[in-house]
TrEMBL record:
<keyword id="KW-0206">Cytoskeleton</keyword>
<feature type="region of interest" description="Disordered">
    <location>
        <begin position="278"/>
        <end position="331"/>
    </location>
</feature>
<dbReference type="InterPro" id="IPR009602">
    <property type="entry name" value="CBAR/FAM92"/>
</dbReference>
<protein>
    <submittedName>
        <fullName>Protein FAM92A1 isoform X1</fullName>
    </submittedName>
</protein>
<feature type="compositionally biased region" description="Acidic residues">
    <location>
        <begin position="306"/>
        <end position="316"/>
    </location>
</feature>
<dbReference type="Pfam" id="PF06730">
    <property type="entry name" value="FAM92"/>
</dbReference>
<dbReference type="InterPro" id="IPR027267">
    <property type="entry name" value="AH/BAR_dom_sf"/>
</dbReference>
<dbReference type="GO" id="GO:0035869">
    <property type="term" value="C:ciliary transition zone"/>
</dbReference>
<dbReference type="GO" id="GO:0060271">
    <property type="term" value="P:cilium assembly"/>
</dbReference>
<dbReference type="GO" id="GO:0036064">
    <property type="term" value="C:ciliary basal body"/>
</dbReference>
<comment type="similarity">
    <text>Belongs to the CIBAR family.</text>
</comment>
<keyword id="KW-0963">Cytoplasm</keyword>
<keyword id="KW-0966">Cell projection</keyword>
<keyword id="KW-0970">Cilium biogenesis/degradation</keyword>
<dbReference type="InterPro" id="IPR035590">
    <property type="entry name" value="BAR_CBAR1/2"/>
</dbReference>
<feature type="compositionally biased region" description="Polar residues">
    <location>
        <begin position="287"/>
        <end position="302"/>
    </location>
</feature>
Amino acid sequence: MLRIRSQSSVCEQEAKFVQDRITAVEKHFAELCTTFAAFTRKSARLRDKGDELAKIIHTYADSETVNRSLSTGLINFSATLSVIGDYRDAEVQRLDAKVVAPLSQYATICKHARDDVKNTFSARDRELARRRHLDKVRERNPRNRQMISQAESELMKASVEVTRVVKGLEEQIDSFERRKLHDLKSVLLDFVTVELSFHTKALELLTKAYQDVAAIDETKDLEDFRVTRGNMNGEFRETMRVSDSVARLDTVGRTSFRQAYSLTNLASRLVPSPVASQKFAGRGTESADSTRTGLTNSSESVQVEEYPDSTEETESESIRDKPVRTRHKSM
């Protein structure tokens, strides 16, 4: 009896130990899976930001028309960043396939291992039940060999089942432990390999990117800028000269027009009208005798007839009908 209890206790302790190991593996592997998945997502975001940076640099390089060396350097730099983004994308894909996926499978693996442990406990419980039943039969009917033999037979079957389950559990637990060690080692080695491969290519490409940026000729680009600025200043000065010439011609045209209009107005004012000429002829006939007698004491007189002023439009229209001024000399 003591030996049977001792075996049952050992079996129970072993099953408890296995169950604790499975629980620990499930917990830690779940944490590793969550952390590696977050690392992979961060790498994917960094890949996306690298692609965005390469696109912005390439757009700036296309818009740069003055600094040709800078434009070339930026184009090469953006191309290198794009290649780095391609390698980072491969890194993300490999991490997801070789690290995250194997770790995520351990939720199912641990669940199956826990079910095997439960089956072991169930078999042990059935064996204990058959053993208690046999003890009761022996106590109540010690002379009933048939019932005792049947109980012993059932107990024997339960013991064989427990032995089989325990042996199978040991094999499964060994396989579980071996797979756990192998998978964890493979996952970590794959992680290091993927990262090492990416960083090796990234180091090579970043060296090229450094050379592309270092190849930008600042002096040559500054000279190109100054030449372009000088050409623009020359064109601006030429444009200003043309504008000044046009303004001067416009001013001269307006001044000439005003002077011509003033001279025309003055000439029209100085030309005597026909009415004034008739008046002048009549007066000359009537005063011919007086003019002749007073030749020695004659003095020059000027008679000017004023007419009211009008606007420029009225004055220009009536310039041939109304005399502005009439001048005649009396002798």
